[in-house]
């Protein structure tokens, strides 16, 4: 598959009479956006707020972050199986409003939502502080169940990103980059002397409020399979989970997966990037055995020399990570695992819930238990009344002056296993 990604640089976002892009500024008709979100009968109200890089703004509780995109050429549409029909995506051309994002907010599962600070020390830990954010603070109908609330917020964010992304359809991009992966035998034959490398992409699927969607299907219902990397870039994988803020993969992470982009940068030069194996992180042992067996089988079937494995979440998924690593290594395929750590505030605790001698090449996103103090902000988008209960917070985390003392895991994307916190959120 060959995908052209056209980057349209967004340097500012403002409200206006019409939703459009002009000279790098994204203008939004606020009422049109509100009306779109309010089409869902489960939503009582929505506030639309803007947050720009460097402003003294705190956004919380954050549910998801989504980059606006639009298909310009080729089959399918963005977010297939959810917003658009279930067509295979990953080819043609897609335009990206780079530097803009839709941020959905709501106290769905208060202890597992996150914080984005647009300035200050917290901003250094999240890539989303560098974006022009359109924030949707969504209030559900009274007594709506949590999973129904999550579904309503998820759909609102995707609909908003699709609506905004369409403004880029007829805009000439600032930059166009081409990504291509050929059918397997052709791909292998093209670079016969380079090591064949694959990416094992572990998706959070631990059940209600801990789900990820592939072409609209709850990924806990699938067995491991192979995707072209460009399918991921075109919206085939969407976030639907409420795991701890620091290490969840938002939809933005999936669309801009830096491991995939880095592998493409090395493709044809140092490695032959063969493709992506997606697998899940279920809770029952039989499911873990099945998925890790299939994942290891695929690495051998594809003839890989090496594989990078990333996980999502921590604790229970650490078992899936190590099972995948061990079984892939036993197939004779070298592995590198990418993870965050929960090593205690002093860094002296066991950092992963599982381990194996074969996991001897590790890239770490850092220790999520480290303490940080977030200074007060002039403006809060959302609400702060849950901060003491958020994962990483504690009794007294929210101080009387509005500052927050907590573990860095409260920050959305802070120690993300994709290594995203180490990379710029804009550009390629």
TrEMBL record:
UniProt keywords, alphabetically: Oxidoreductase, Pyruvate, Schiff base
InterPro entries: Gly/sarc/bet_Rdtase_B_asu/bsu (IPR016585), Gly_reductase_pB_sua/b (IPR015417)
Pfam families, alphabetized: Gly_reductase
Oxidoreductase in keyword set: yes
Residues found modified as Pyruvic acid (Cys): 242
Coiled-coil intervals, chain numbering: none
GO molecular function, one term: oxidoreductase activity, acting on X-H and Y-H to form an X-Y bond, with a disulfide as acceptor
List of catalytic residues: 242
Record's protein name: Glycine reductase
Originating species: Maledivibacter halophilus
